[in-house]
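Worked Example 4.2. Consider the chain below.
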Amino acid sequence: MLSHALKAVIWDFDNTLVDTRARNRSVTRRIIETVTDRAADEFHVLSEQRLYDSAIYRWQNWQDLYRVEFELSQDQIRAAGRLWTGYQAEDSTPTRWFEGIAEVVRRLADWPQAIVSMNTSDNIRAALGHADLGDHFRLVVGCDDVAYERQKPDADGLLHCLDTLTEDEEGTVLYVGDHPVDAQCAANANRELDRRGAALRVVAIGAAYGADAPLDGWPVAPDFQAHAPDDVLAIAGISEPPAT
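Applying the procedure from the previous section yields the following structure tokens:
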């Protein structure tokens, strides 16, 4: 249960709201083949889905993944980043919203919600539109909305949401994400809020439902763990469905 009034709920996107693992691997395979002129299967982590999933959680962000696992130069990483939006739009690999997550989003309609993600804002808005959930999110901050060198775990995107949704009013904001970088981002946002003297705190929720996201051993532990989407409601203090 939260110790201060809930002000807003902010979500990561990939593997928090939507299971995008298969599509992201497909897009990454195509990007790496384009940038390196090598077959994707030459790279161990791209040869099987389970290996790609493990690699995603092994590295802090996609730039580190590309730099270490694929041995890309900085210029190649930037080129890869420019290809992501177009290749995502062209890829037909199915994705799915995690079971129950859309209902959780709807149950939180009395609070402002936003998304801070390292996917692109266009991809996110398209997914929201397909699920008829676009009206539930006041703000979407994708990787294309934040400077390349200020991506998560830097808190620029998250702080932009906080400034827009709360104006540093006293209370609590939930940030729900499946990756260690999300908890680190929340911690960095709290440090900036402390510097400002703001009576606002970001509470990190580690999302462990459906995508086999490992929560043990995160450099920064989340404040709470959600092993099912409804856990987010319980953490927020919303345990009963609305009367019908």
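The chain is about 40% helix and 15% strand. The longest strand covers residues 200-207. Compare this with Example 4.1 before moving on.
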